[in-house]
Amino acid sequence: MRLGVAGPVGTGKSSLIATLCRRLADRISLAVVTNDIYTDEDARFLRAAGVLDPERIRPVETGACPHTAIRDDVTANLLAAEDLEADFAPLDLVVIESGGDNLTATFSPALVDAQLFVLDVAGGGDVVRKGGPGIARADLLVVNKTDLGPYVGVDVERMVREGREARAGRPVVALSKHDEASVQELVDWVLGTLASYRAGGHVAVDPGPMAPHFHADEEHEHAHGDEPHTHAEQHAHAPAGTHPA
Ligand SMILES: Nc1nc2c(ncn2[C@@H]2O[C@H](COP(=O)(O)OP(=O)(O)OP(=O)(O)O)[C@@H](O)[C@H]2O)c(=O)[nH]1
């Protein structure tokens, strides 16, 4: 299974992956692809953490806006994942870390089977309310660094509650690398998703368009976090031939 980890800069994606490696490397066969714009910093961080055979950690240097390499043209990441899968066959899990991006960035289902979106409480309690496809529809939303809540004046419980409300029943994990119970919850989700994937019960979903559009002659009923319109719905009133295929 390929698992994507996306989220804004500094929310704790590399630390989360290091935690997963620490907890899972002796139970399943793992590899990691990292994405940075200009460097291989995240790969070096993970190698230095000593949580996985350094050969199993491969950097992709995107040279462009991070979402380009995980959503628009996934070639470099596909090659890195396929190389790891060939070199260390059979692998159970390849984790692909996105470069830190903004709230619109999600993985293409052409690259990953499941994806999680990482926010942190230090980024502010209102971030969840700002919405976006990753927050609303990634397979898992992680509200990270819950231990920092008291220091940054963020009501963590409220942030998590608003996360659940935005996701129509999809799961949310409130995580801190210093809180063992929350780490266990994350590990359980990953292993549960892997089991479901192996049993054929997990289907890769596209969290959706970055900004679903609507037409001025339609009533816009969809609030943040709701399902996006389907293409057919969006164009239901358009005269034939007025939109590109
Ligand atoms: N207090 C606290 N700090 C954390 C936690 N998780 C990560 N951090 C810290 O947050 C900072 C950023 O973590 P990273 O894992 O580098 O974040 P990232 O999302 O990979 O960053 P980019 O790759 O630059 O986007 C580091 O100083 C971590 O030690 C946590 O659960 N609690």
UniProtKB/TrEMBL annotation:
Region annotation (Disordered) maps to 212-245
Cellular location(s): Cytoplasm
Query: Care to name a GO molecular-function term for this sequence?
Result: GTPase activity
How it assembles, according to the record, is: Homodimer. UreD, UreF and UreG form a complex that acts as a GTP-hydrolysis-dependent molecular chaperone, activating the urease apoprotein by helping to assemble the nickel containing metallocenter of UreC. The UreE protein probably delivers the nickel.
Its biological purpose: Facilitates the functional incorporation of the urease nickel metallocenter. This process requires GTP hydrolysis, probably effectuated by UreG.
Which protein family is named in the record? Answer: Belongs to the SIMIBI class G3E GTPase family. UreG subfamily.
Mind telling me which HAMAP family this protein's record contains?
UreG
Stated name of the protein: Urease accessory protein UreG
Organism listed in the record: Cellulomonas shaoxiangyii
